[in-house]
Amino acid sequence: MSDRIRDFLRRRDEDGPCVVVDLDIVRDNFEAFAKSLPDTSVYYAVKANPAPEILSLLESLGSSFDCASVGEIEMVLATGASADRISYGNTIKKEKDIARAYQYGVRLFAVDCVEEVEKIARVAPGSKIFCRVLCDGVGAEWPLSRKFGCDPEMAPDVLEHGHRLGLVAHGVSFHVGSQQANLTAWDLALAMAAGVFQEMALRGIELKMVNMGGGFPTRYLKDVPGVSTYGEAIFQALCKHFGNRLPSTIIEPGRGMVGNAGMIEAEVVLISRKSANDEVRWVYLDIGKFHGLAETMDEAIRYPIRTPRDGDTTAPCVLAGPTCDSVDVLYEKTPYELPVSLSIGDKVLIEACGAYTTTYSTVGFNGFAPLASFVI
After folding, report:
1. How far apart are CA 56 and CA 63, in angstroms?
2. Rounded to an integer, what distance in angstroms lies between the CA atom of residue 35 and that of residue 228?
3. Sign of the CA dihedral 92, 94, 100, 105?
4. The dihedral of CA 358, 363, 366, 367: what is its sign?
5. Contact 173, 130 (CB under 8 A)
6. What is the model's pLDDT at position 140?
7. Are residues 313 and 228 in the same domain?
8. Which of 69, 104, 220, 259 could form a disulfide with 255 if both were Cys (CB 3.0 to 4.6 A apart)?
9. Beta bridge partners of 180
10. How far apart are the first and last CA of the chain?
């Protein structure tokens, strides 16, 4: 925990859980990406945390932005960023939203099928398109489904179709899975991308860009490689598969940009057992799946938790949220070790919560307020 977050929480009087994000850490993370991949453009994945303060900081540092909706595009434009620093990276877009983005000046769009290409050709003529290809996501703690992307063999047909409709077939994108610890994942994905480049060249169309997506991890309970290690692995893979004719490249860090910059303060509401001889306690917090901790789904992300009783004897417990919904259980399959002396009313700190917490918090499920957010 940063000293700035510690001081802020010490002075905070309000009740209820909150997340606090330290902009100094976000700045350090951006500079690490820029240094580790100096010839690659950073497009921050706005969906990770769209707080205006974060967007404004990144705009001032020269970041570009990966947006999933017109709403996110408008948030970015509000910082003063120009539209040529925006990629409309969602492959599922209403035609009217494509038209609105085009009116704002956005000219870079993601696709993964000919149907999406045709929408863009109708309302955003002359725009650049890049086709997302599927990755298996092996090694990721939060693997992605087949919802986004197409088989690499299909990508040339999608891009050529766009070319024939007057769009600019610009490149290929992929996402190796969120919280990706497998450094070879980018090597395999770049091999696929190079194959699409080669096929397009045979068709007389020169692609120019590879969007290498996100997947860069933040540290939860396990150590992860540093950004410089990823940068070296990615550069080696680029040289391996593209030789001396390197394409322009984009990365879309989200979790890796803001994850370790945020911390949630929560409170223990109840500690109980399900039977007289039950050895496993149930610890209920005033925050759960519906108010910021959705990524505990299937216990995929295991957040570090600090308590005022750290150092005391620990025992496994089930950790759950406060709502009247049976799925609001954070860790049960693999119980969480917490101090036996933990008491009702104790404050706990949940670390590495800067990404995908405020954006996953419901508006008012069960009458609980959305997760309060502070950016310092």
Report:
1. 10
2. 8
3. positive
4. positive
5. yes
6. 59
7. no
8. 259
9. 140
10. 13
Q: Which residues of the chain have pLDDT under 70?
A: 137, 139-145
The pLDDT value recorded for residue 143 is 61
What's the pLDDT at 330? 97
Summarised one tens digit per residue, pLDDT across range 225-249 is 899 999 999 999 999 999 999 999 9
Same-domain check for residues 59 and 192:
yes
Displacement of CA 36 from its chain's centroid (Å): 19
Query: To 10 degrees, the CA torsion angle through 238, 64, 142, 154?
Result: -60
Task: Give residue for tokens 């099928």.
Answer: 113
Alpha helices in the chain (DSSP H): 3-11, 23-36, 52-61, 70-77, 95-104, 114-123, 155-164, 184-202, 227-242, 255-258
Query: Is 217 found in the same domain as 137?
Result: yes
Q: DSSP states of 70-100 as a string?
A: HHHHHHHHTTT--GGGEEE--S---HHHHHH
Phi and psi at 123, nearest 5°, equal: -120, -5
Residue 124 lies in a domain: yes
The residues, ordered by sequence, that sit 6+ positions from 121 with a Cβ below 8 Å of its Cβ are 162, 165, 166, 167
Q: Which amino acid is at 238?
A: L
Work out the number of other CB atoms within 10 angstroms of the CB of residue 277: 6
List the CATH number of the domain containing 324: 2.40.37.10
Cβ within 8 Å of residue 320, ≥6 positions away? 282, 283, 284, 285, 288, 328, 329, 330, 332
The number of domains in the chain is 2
Longest pairwise C-alpha distance within the chain:
74
Q: Are 298 and 317 in contact (CB under 8 A)?
A: no
- Known catalytic residues are 324
Task: Note the pLDDT of residue 215.
Answer: 87
DSSP 339: E
Last residue of a domain, one of 235, 253, 271: 253
Please give the residue range of the domain that contains residue 366: 260-375
Output the pLDDT for position 223: 84
- How far, in Å, CA of 17 to CA of 286, rounded? 7
184 located within any domain:
yes
Q: Which residue, of 191, 226, 253, is where some domain finishes? A: 253
State whether 185 and 312 are in the same domain: no
Phi and psi at residue 74, to the nearest 5°: -65, -35
